[in-house]
Amino acid sequence: MSYIWNNDTLLQISSWEIDWTVSVHKFWENIEVWKNTEEDIWDWWWTYNYPTTADITHLSQISNKANDRWETVFIEWLDINYNIVQQQVNLNASNSTTKVALTTPLLRLYRMMYFSDHLAEDDIIVTNSWWWTEYWRMIEWNNQTMMCQYTVPLWKKAYITSLYASAIPSDWKKPKSVHLRLKIADRWNGFDFMTKWSMWIPEKWWMVLRDPKPYMQLTEKMDLKISAYCDWQKGYITAWFDIILVDD
């Protein structure tokens, strides 16, 4: 029985009133975007490393923490064919720094989180089998990953409905301006990241919000991220975007 009696389409989507359609909210922060350097908004610093093959294979912790051993990590990800898959992996019971193999190699990782409300006492990372390349990080004192990035799964289309970013000022983090870029990589057609939307935060402002009309469409196998460039001083930058995901 429907309880939505108005024409608020986004509310209908959030209330599961429209079949084959879901809303996705992606957000987070980069607490130190270095001056005159472009960095992505994700759980760590610098630019995120996108693998070209299913190279994400192992889970571990940066240092051995007794309270994190045997914690169950829920992982939602894309396989080599861009299909959404979920799995659960336990950290090693004796030493949480021991690499634990994932059941299936990953191409992209949407999120990972503890089932419990326990906050990780050191960072949880996923890497390739040699532990040379880090692809994702759940930072300490959190129990989930948070990244302002997304990849459109197979047989899906995505529509960007809103974009937001803010610069949080402090004594040593007051850039004269922040240049934010929405970047999209069309992997299906072999293209790397290109700027598709640009936003500026001037020195005396602290946030910017954009609602693209019409909605910006993304097709399957497209990577989406927000990056920031801080002028003159480093910055503390937050960002989020909302999308509607539709079966194609």
Overview of the structural elements:
The structure is a single chain. The chain has 248 residues and is mostly beta strands. It folds into two domains: 139 residues, Sandwich (Jelly Rolls); 83 residues, no CATH class. The chain is 2% helix and 50% strand. The strands form four sheets. Strands 1, 11, 14, 15 and 17 form a five-stranded antiparallel beta sheet that branches. Strands 2, 10, 12, 13 and 16 form a five-stranded antiparallel beta sheet that branches. The chain is globular. The two termini are 26 Å apart.
Condensed summary:
The chain has one helix at residues 9-14; strands spanning 21-33, 38-40, 56-61, 72-78, 84-90, 100-106, 108-114, 124-127, 134-138, 149-151, 156-167, 177-186, 193-202, 207-210, 216-218, 222-231, 235-247. It has 248 residues and is mainly beta. The strands form 4 sheets. Strands 1, 11, 14, 15 and 17 form a 5-stranded antiparallel β-sheet that branches. Strands 2, 10, 12, 13 and 16 form a 5-stranded antiparallel β-sheet that branches.
CATH class bucket of the largest domain: Mainly Beta
Major pleated sheet: 5 strands, antiparallel
**In oligomeric terms, what are we looking at?**
single chain
Mean pLDDT: 90
Architecture per CATH nomenclature, i.e. the level-2 architecture of the largest domain: Sandwich
Query: Structural class of the secondary elements?
Result: mainly beta
> What share of the residues lie within helices?
under 10%
Cα radius of gyration in angstroms? 19 Å
For this structure, the CATH topology of the largest domain is Jelly Rolls
Unreliable runs: none
Q: How far apart are the first and last residues' alpha carbons, in Å?
A: 26 Å
How much strand content do the residues show?
over 45%
* Total domain modules: 2
SSE string:
HEEEEEEEEEEEEEEEEE
Number of helices: 1
Strand count: 17
* Shape field: globular
